[in-house]
Amino acid sequence: MRFRIAALVFALLMSVGSFVTFAQESEPASDEPTLIVYSSVEQLLGGDVTIGIPIAAVAEELGNFDPTWSVVGLGTTNQVMRNGELMPDGTAAHLRYWWVDPSSDTQAAVVDLATAAEIAGATPVPGAPSPAVTVDFEPEFPLIALAVADSAEALTFEAENVDNVHDWIVATLAETDVTLAGLQVTGSFGEVNTTVGYHLPTTGVDISTVYQDRSVFHFLDYQEPATWVMNGFYAAEAELQPVVSVAGRPVHLHGYQPEAMLGGHIATAAAADVTLTVYPLENVVQTRPDDEA
Fold it and tell me: Going from the N-terminus, what domains does the chain have, and what CATH number goes with each?
């Protein structure tokens, strides 16, 4: 598949420390299911948290695709001490930038970041109640990864009584020829353990203990059964795992409860009855401007 070639090109770019940008050498083919990724998980955890891409630029890039194509993904923001977890979903024409606010009362409140950003930039109305969640003005994404694909080409799998959703996805996709894909898992879940990043430092995070550091993450566990929507990626090949996950972890998921509007990075999850939608990806567009861009 062509994304393997793109991954090798990315590895070469990484080795010399240069990146293409959305507006320059590499643009996604609008007729190919594509992974669009700004920076990488590895770069983010290495301390690249201040430079970001705004929502308007992401929307412009998605304009290269059929507006009805499905989009799922994950990421974070560059808001100081409230990075949060991003889990976009929707279509190329209408993407919801679901974001988990680590500074909310629950440390896990979910809001559409585009709407919250509009609120943050609006002129307050005298006497009007304050919104439940606001954001720093025009937050940007030091990491955002999006799978853009035709839903008609998606694969679906169903399961009941899954002890570990991550392991189930790996085992399920190992039986296919899919090696890179966007994922959405929906349905009834049991215990779900999450983290919510609030302080991603510019000095970087120790990847070997990345999801154990309480100076970086809030840890929130959900014991009661609930409906969840989980968005993310599967990367079987080692060279792509640090792009959308971390080395040795082929599945990376962020999720939210659509009824309670709570969410976070999914550390572990048990499922009662779920559907997995898989968007196989053929093309990779990896971008990041340099410090002067």
Answer: 3-287 (3.30.1330.80)
